[in-house]
Amino acid sequence: MAYTAIDDPSVYFQTALYTGDGNSTKAITNDGNSDLQPDWVWTKVRSASNSHHLADTSRGITKQLTANNTNGEQTDASIHASVQSDGFTVGDAGSVNANGATYVSWQWKANGGSRTTNTESGNNPAGGYQANTTAGFSIVDYTGTGANGTMAHGLGVVPQVMIVKNRDQTDSWQVYHIDLGNNKSLFLDNSDPVYTLTDIWNQTTPTSSVFTIGTSHRTNADAEKYIAYCFTPIQGYSKFGSYTGNGSTTDGAFVYTGFSPAWVLMKRTSGSEAWMLVDSKRPGFNVIDDVLEPNDVAAEGASTDIDLLSNGFKLRKDNSNASGETYIYMAFAESPFVSSEGVPTTAR
């Protein structure tokens, strides 16, 4: 029996906490079991209101997008400045390095910035991908054609989550989730419920080699540049699914993941509710109520309560567990429930 495909999740994902010093550059060094040179970096100030900054090594680490709004890409080395063999550096922007402010950064490994490229073919865009098939993660960049087309993702299996942004325009982030289907989309930058939009994914489910983009300006305007973050689940390391809330604050819904989560992103799909993001380092013990909302600039707050357990997570507050309401989630592991050698994980 295969318990997990990845014994040490810190090879592919880590959370870093740090305090800003206001200097022109500051190195952020990871503290996981393994060194991690990140390819996708997502940084947010915890102690103040400011944007969620996202950068990657396909676009170039100094090119910033913000999860909480529709803004196009900006080049700004005062935010993310470079990646290192075990972390990254930030500049002196207040949103990432104000003196005395506290920050969190989540980091994923893809393929070290090395891309497989393709040229435009008919309606199919030109672009490229850097894929980590072991960790089920790829970063895809492409230039739209304005017509229904496909783009290679490099995962070798069907992606279950895709997060796409028009880099050139003020378009909303589009989120595909397997439990929503191929004619639905969520917007990462707002709290709206799920939309039925037939022109985002052209009502076509991704395959093991490509995902389909429709004619929407948000995913495929002619000659405009896009970035897509694609994920497929890996046993013992990542899982993407949905759950139904039961309304209880004492015995809320439990979601089995097969690992102790390091990071969980949740969104109510059946009504308006903020995206909610928690991790195992903030505050580092249960019950966790240090929540950030990717669609909002707000500082860290107690907008939900959640327990991160050895084999999943349990909800403790109504806004992430409303009775009869549906939520989607993404989760990445701190440690597998059972190692590849059959050794159980110690509970928190």
Indicate the topology:
Layout: E1 13-19, E2 26-29, E3 40-45, E4 53-56, E5 63-66, E6 74-75, E7 80-84, E8 87-90, H1 94-97, E9 102-108, E10 116-118, E11 126-132, E12 137-143, E13 149-152, E14 161-166, E15 174-177, E16 184-187, E17 195-196, E18 210-213, H2 217-220, E19 225-231, E20 238-244, E21 254-256, E22 259-268, E23 276-279, E24 306-308, E25 312-315, E26 326-336
Antiparallel strand pairs: 1-9, 2-8, 3-4, 3-9, 4-5, 5-6, 7-8, 10-11, 11-12, 12-19, 13-18, 14-15, 14-19, 15-16, 16-17, 20-26, 21-25, 22-23, 22-26, 24-25
Describe what you observe in this structure:
- The chain has 2 helices and 26 strands.
- By secondary structure, the chain is an all-beta fold.
- 2% of the residues lie in helices and 38% in strands.
- An 8-stranded antiparallel beta sheet has the order 10-11-12-19-14-15-16-17. Strands 1-9-3-4-5-6 form a 6-stranded antiparallel beta sheet.
- A hairpin with a 7-residue loop joins strand 16 and strand 17.
- The protein folds into 3 domains: 100 residues, no CATH class; 106 residues, no CATH class; 99 residues, no CATH class.
- It starts with 12 loop residues before the first strand and ends in a 12-residue tail after the last strand.
- It is globular and about 55 Å long.
Short description:
With 348 residues, this protein is mostly beta strands. The protein contains two helices and 26 strands.
